[in-house]
Amino acid sequence: MGWLRLARSPWSTTGRPDPNSTKQDDLEITVQHIETLSISDTTPNPAPAAQPAKVQKSRKYPFQPADIPSSLLPFIPAPEVLSKADKSPSKSLEDLWIVVDGIVYDCSEFVHSHPGGEEVIKNFNGQDCSWQFWRFHGKEQMESDGWALRIGRTEGVPNRFPEPPRYVGLRRLGDPDDDW
User: Fold this and answer.
1) Of 88, 93, 77, 92, which Cα lies nearest the Cα of 157?
2) pLDDT at 16 exceeding the cut of 50
3) Which one-letter DSSP state was computed for residue 143?
4) Per-residue pLDDT tens for 53-89?
5) Measured by CB atoms within 10 angstroms of the end CB, which terminus of the chain is less buried, N or C?
6) DSSP code of residue 40
7) Quick one: CA torsion of 85, 87, 88, 93, rounded to 10 degrees?
8) Which CATH code of 3.40.640.10, 3.10.120.10, 3.40.50.800, 3.30.70.660 fits the domain covering 70-153?
9) Predicted local confidence at residue 165, as pLDDT
10) Beta strand residue intervals within the chain, DSSP E
């Protein structure tokens, strides 16, 4: 969250100086809050050039719409998810799947824009990373980025790392021997 200050030159939209502008150094300054930022150009956009349509490969497990509850996602057997964990050099990362709380996410494209780097996700390909995910992310990140990557649900995919205990002060969080 923060503020963004935009400066726009009178000639920035066309790449050429505006003949009606008296000074080239005049800038229109706009300050907006980042969460409500919108940049609009009043100049009409030229018609886009005809570009070939991207051909989507047929996916066995396509991305699921965000309005579908997790319990209704298609079931993916654990052996199929675990098969993605093959780390041989010949293995391509076209199907980079991770599991968080029993939901399978296809991170094949997202891995390149992950703020923590590609290796973090690649290390959990075909594996559960629930507690690791929740240590660094919140519900907001899951809703904004994660839900669009859901492809199914699964059971029986283990996390290869045991979750270390969490401590609050000198006591473990949720310790059954707490008497307060």
Assistant:
1) 77
2) no
3) I
4) 444 557 889 999 989 999 999 999 999 999 988 765 5
5) C
6) -
7) 70
8) 3.10.120.10
9) 84
10) 3-8, 28-33, 97-100, 103-106, 127-128, 150-153, 167-168, 171-172
